[in-house]
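Our example copied in:
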Amino acid sequence: MTKNSRETVSSTPKSDIRLRSYLTLALLSLIWGSSYILIKKGLTVFDPLQLGALRLSISAAAFLPFLLHFFRRIDWSKWPFLLVVGLTGTGLPSLLFPMAQEGISSSLAGILNSLTPLFTLLLGILLFRTELEWKKVIGVLIGLGGAVLLVLRTGGQIDGSAGYALLAVAGAFCYAISGNTVASKLRDTPSLTISAAAFVMVGAPAAIYLFTATDFVEVLTTHPDGWLGLGYVAILALVATVTASVIFFQLIQWTSAVFGSTVSYVVPLVALAWGFADGEALTLAIFIGMGLILSGVYLSRQ
C-alpha cells in the first residue's frame, strides 16, 4: 500500500471501510466459490499438471505488461517474499486443487479450503509474530465449526482416497502462508505490483514446462472439447486468479490476513448454492452452518 493509499484509508470513515471490506469479501467468495466447477470442467480435457501450468501461464501473460510498467518502481530487495507469495498463493495451489479434484468433488474441495483461516491464524502467531487476539481466535473456531457442519451435511464422504482430501488441505495451508506474507512483509507494496511480480515469477517456468514437457498442444488440437477446456481454464485464470488476487491482496492490506482468509469460509456457501440451483435441497443444518460461518467472519474482523 502506498503512502497516498494509506492516507486515503486513514481518512475514510471506519463504517465505510468496514462496508467496503465486507462487499469485497462477498465478491471474492462469489468468484472463488465458482472456481472449483471451472477446475472440474477443465479436468475433462487436461490432466491436473497441464491445467495448473496452463492457469499459471495465462495469469503470467496477463500480468506481464503490468510488471514491465512497474518494473523500476518495484522494491526488488523483497523478491524472496514475492516469490513465496507466487509459490504459495497460486503456484502450488494451482496444482494441488486439480490433483485433489481427481478424487473428491468440487464442492468438498471448496469446503476443505475453509481451513485456510485456521492455518492463517496459527502461522501468524507462530511464525509472523501476530498478536494473539481472542476475538479472532473465537471467530476462526466458530467459522471452522460451521464449515465442519457443512462437511457433515454432505455425509462426510470423500469420493476417493483420503490422500486427495489432504491435497486440498495442503492447498489451504499454502494460502495461509501467502496471506501472512503479504500482511507482514508486503503491506506497503501495491497489490497490483505484488500480483504482477509474484505471478510472472512462477508463471514463466510453468509456461516452459507446459510447452516443452507435456502434450498440451496435441491435447488442445485433437481432443473434441480441447478449445472448450481452454476456455474454462482461461476464465479460471483471468477471473479467479488474475482479478481475484489483486482484490484479495488489497483486502488484506485494508484489514488483516485473518479476515482476508475468511473468504474461504464463505466459498463453500457459494459452492452449495450452485448445488441448490442444480436441484439440491436446503436443510436446517445448512442454515445453521451458514450462520456460524458468517458469525465467525464478523468476529475475526474485529
